[in-house]
Amino acid sequence: EPEGWVRVTEVSAKAATPSSTSNGGVQYLLFDQQVRVTPKQQSHYRHLAMQVANETGLGSASHVELNFNPAYQTLTLHFVNVRRGTQVIPKLARGTVKVLHRERELEYRVLDGTRTANLFLEDVRVGDVVEYGYTLEGFNPVFGSSRFGRFDLQWSVPLDRLRYRLLWSGDRPVRMLARNGARLAEPTRAGGFEQYEWDVRQIAALTVEQDAPSWYDPYPSVSWGTGDSWREVVEWALPLYQSPPSLNGELSAVVRDIARSHATDE
Questions:
Q1: pTM (2 decimals)?
Q2: Predicted pLDDT at 58
Q3: Which of 82, 88, 107, 122 shows a CA-CA span of 20 to 30 A to 10?
């Protein structure tokens, strides 16, 4: 079961229709993300539910794939269920979770240690609702005391319900930035935390042309975090890119040879 700070959202199923082919054969019923931030920890709870509309969606709905980095994160799977009418079929106990080590940027010589937890579900049928919930606990220590995240309030596919919740008790105040028409939530109090909530229903898809530049982002979103300015970001990053204090003898000789071969430093 999720920890006590999580407010679990019930999924209301609806009849799947073949018209959902634009979503890859599934209808997304719920995406619920709740984040709890303290000065020493950050936890992300996520709950996703989708209904299989036709045979096209069987493949994606039957495969649960979750990424995490064991160097600083702990992944806890709370439940994996298939709802068939009024019947709830638990799949987590019966299935086998395989943890794979796949370095996605190996060809660029970039290794980050990310693992992928995979679970393949048997006997998923058209009309079934597949739902799963999990918590990721931990935050990359390279960011020090900074805490940040983003909530996307619209997807490239339709969504029945989108819910976000932020619990904040950091040692610094949280700052928020709304983009592309998103609204900021008013804070309330919940057990010693500042609480911010978004709950949106019947969200239409927003598609972007394939030739649009990679930096183009028209999606409504709310970014949150501790940063006060870009100067703070620069000051955090500079120590990560320090030049070595001295060069070894062999490399120093190469530098001198290059300098002697050219009239200017440029």
A1: 0.86
A2: 92
A3: 122
Contacting residues for 116 by C-beta, under 8 A, at least 6 apart: 65, 66, 67, 99, 100, 101, 102
- β-bridge partners, 83: 88, 129
pLDDT of residue 214 exceeding 60? yes
CB distance 128 to 83 below 8 Å = yes
Residue 225 has which token pair? Answer: 């975090």
> Which SS3 state, helix, strand or coil, does residue 233 take?
helix
254: amino acid identity, one letter: V
Q: How many residues does the chain have?
A: 266
Strands (E) across 25-170 are located at: 26-37, 42-52, 63-68, 74-84, 87-90, 98-101, 115-120, 129-137, 148-152, 159-168
CA distance 169 to 230: 23
pLDDT of residue 12: 76
Distance CA 104, CA 77 (A): 23
Query: What residues contact 213, with CB distance under 8 A and at least 6 apart?
Result: none
What is the full DSSP assignment across 172-212?
Answer: S--EEEEETT--PPPPEEETTEEEEEEEEEEEPP----TTS
Over range 21-34, report the average pLDDT: 86
Long-range contacts of 80-86 (CB under 8 A, 24+ apart): 80/119, 80/121, 80/130, 80/131, 80/132, 81/130, 81/131, 81/132, 82/121, 82/123, 82/124, 82/128, 82/129, 82/130, 83/11, 83/13, 83/128, 83/129, 83/130, 83/131, 84/125, 84/127, 84/128, 84/129
